[in-house]
Amino acid sequence: MFSLIESKVDIAKAQRKLEASFRRDFKHRVTRNIGYPGGSTFDAAVVSNGKYWHWVSDLDETKTPNPRRLNWFGLFDEGEDHLQITVEINTPYEGVNAQIAGFFARDNDTGSVYLSHSGRIGGGKKGVNKTAFLTWSSQKLIEVFDSAGHARDGVLVMPVEGPAATRSATRYIETIANFKKAVRAGETDTTDFKQREKQLADFYSEAQGRRKGTRSEEFDYISRHGEIVDALHSWRKTAGLTKGSRLVKNVLIDLGVSVDGNLIEVYEVKTSAMRPDVYTAIGQLLVHGSAQDCKRVLVLPRSGNLANDLERALKRNAIEIVRFELTNDSVAIV
């Protein structure tokens, strides 16, 4: 899981490491004008590796309601006096600000910090937008959670430090530049592309609707996973077991019913009905409930609604659904 970095001190530390990585890998320092729709920044001191450039500055806090550190990136041409911005990944100085496309995220498992980007692409041309970019590039978004439990999607652009930190950033710059070329060439105007774009928009709309902007409830589910499994164990035991069968659980399965060492039932508990959880559950149930006559059961919170295609997939794979309900002091299988 990824957490949003919010404190002013931690954001400044991440930004310093980011800039140090670019100074290390982009050793060429030049002065250029940077153009963008509506104006230009003159005599900007950029760093470059000969193919890409990076420029940083502070946006005057007195001139904007969204103060931010500017991180601009683009393709470098030695013969051009005027550079063009490929993407801006500006970051807030502190706190949470979804109006600013860039942010820093920490991997809670490793502690690594990443520069992240909402995927929001500008450029002044019709067709250059976030959904079209994500459709064309197949960039994957990860969920990042702030201290209030609210979720934000973003692309992990690069780690802020490490021996090859800027390598993934240059690939991201190149991908965006190629996307803009594709738009200009009309590649995103086809019927097939529009259908894929709509499918992606529907997917993220569905995810947003299910997530409802917060995951505080799911955090509770996660911390009480063992309690849910215990309730499932008691529920299945009460239902009765056939002679020679017994309830089992291990590191691979939440609960199962075994006869002579072979699973005849397998249960997997998930904290939500969102796609990533259901995708994972289908794989786990098919792998561990591999016998043809094994009963496979996905256990979901009562409040989680399944998308129609996921429900059909469960039926195709003969996976049943059992629901649980969590309160402050109890768990019930319903």
Round the Cα radius of gyration to an integer and report it: 25 Å
Q: Please tell me the overall pLDDT.
A: 90
Q: How far apart lie the N and C ends?
A: 29 Å
Structural class: alpha+beta
- In N-to-C order, the SSE pattern is EHEEEEEEEEEHEEHHHHEEEHEHEE
Description:
By secondary structure, the chain is α+β, with helices and mostly antiparallel strands. It folds into two domains: 2-212, no CATH class; 219-333, Trna Endonuclease, Chain: A, domain 1. 34% of the residues lie in helices and 31% in strands. It is built from eight helices and 18 strands. Helix 2 (130-137) crosses helix 4. The model has no long low-confidence stretch (mean pLDDT 90).
Features:
single chain, 334 residues, alpha+beta, Trna Endonuclease, Chain: A, domain 1, 2 domains, seven-stranded mixed β-sheet, six-stranded mixed β-sheet, 8 helices
Question: What's the quick description here?
Answer:
This protein is of the alpha+beta class. It contains 8 helices and 18 strands.
Please render the helix and strand layout as text.
Layout: E1 2-4, H1 8-25, E2 28-36, E3 39-48, E4 52-58, E5 68-75, E6 82-84, E7 87-88, E8 91-92, E9 102-107, E10 113-117, H2 130-137, E11 142-145, E12 151-159, H3 165-184, H4 191-211, H5 216-223, H6 225-239, E13 245-248, E14 255-259, E15 262-269, H7 275-288, E16 295-301, H8 308-316, E17 319-326, E18 331-333
Parallel strand pairs: 1-11, 2-6, 15-16, 16-17
Antiparallel strand pairs: 1-9, 2-3, 3-4, 4-5, 5-7, 5-8, 9-10, 10-12, 11-12, 13-14, 14-15, 17-18
